[in-house]
């Protein structure tokens, strides 16, 4: 116990007693650490304000728990912000709101039905139908498919060519159609025979001679198939993706509802207070590392250098993505490695006070099946780390971050390899492979647009994987070569492997929306 904290802890305990509260020693130590940087007068002021906040929370018992203290401190840090507005928040994938498209009113509406991991069998098709409805409504709004409008006396035929989107049932009801464009799921219902399927039926595709647009066309993704239909088969001339849509256009169909998740009832994207904070906090950074193998001594050495280096200029958050140990190891060994991770920050007091340490597990980490979204690492395995670094947060995979008005998705998945193994057509221009990757997930509006056999998904929680409306930044922890690519106002960043890339990592600067490549050198002396 730090001797400097003892008088302050006594002061906290006495102040709380006078206000009718009881506080445990570990919680008084936590609060003392938060107040230690202030002088005596400031501490008394903060103590008064904190106890007033606790009284307004209407606690059920006089015992003040850690969660209530953190809530009080977080609310006090939001001076100048409205209720529910936070500067930085981690959003659990299992709490991401689910919206359904209402065809009648042409709006997305919040679905408040309870969700569960072992859900009803009907959800196996329902989650794909909801994904289809999301893609259909934005496709129909695109200039190529929206009804032609006569402007300034110019007829529709003189304007750009328009396409009429057909449904499978329209094709099946006729024997031939010269020009047909169908939106549907690319699926293989018979061995070696591909179909495009929508809620009205399925049509066989003839892909010989088809021109593939940019992207990875895997079974399980949604495609726009253009060609001519004859006797039950659509001879495809061109195969592309549903068009992407800027986030500003998409949000108009959600109203002011909070589509991102978090405590706020309204979307924080338009908060004037947060916009000002984002603009003025030019030194704020978020650090991303993937493939952080805590069971390798060289990795632990590099992390120690990272923590010491950032102690003088703490970032908003350091995001570590797994796997944290070799998959063949005993699961409980992870506990010892996480304890050791907490020990690496010894002496880095400013870092531990000001920076959130976020752990995102991979499919190889223990206690959860290889299904997305994946539950976080259990607290029982990270108890030592949580004690050593109180601002540690155990995240789901994927998870969402909110910094001021910016929306960030973080996912640890070797998705590039899955795309390359499962695509029907490998892109000819391999020098632009990262552009094909980014375009695939942006146009599909989903993190894993691939067959469920290649990457299973919890049916009831599929909206946690949606990328609609598009976020500001998508951070993939893929072990392939690092890259970044921007599509329709959304930046797709791959961190690469911390181990394989000579300990390289990425630093995101929200104020300028830029990404910096960083690396821990072999010798800092």
TrEMBL record:
Belongs to the DNA polymerase epsilon subunit B family. The keyword Nucleotidyltransferase applies. Residues 7-76 form the DNA polymerase epsilon subunit B N-terminal domain. It comes from the Eukaryota. The gene is Dyak\GE20528. Participates in DNA repair and in chromosomal DNA replication. It comes from Drosophila yakuba. It holds the Pfam family DNA_pol_E_B. Residues 286-484 form the DNA polymerase alpha/delta/epsilon subunit B domain. GO terms for biological process: DNA endoreduplication; DNA replication proofreading; error-prone translesion synthesis; mitotic DNA replication; positive regulation of DNA endoreduplication. Keywords: DNA replication, DNA-binding, Nucleotidyltransferase, Nucleus, Transferase. It is found in: Nucleus. This is DNA polymerase epsilon subunit. One of its GO terms (cellular component) is epsilon DNA polymerase complex.
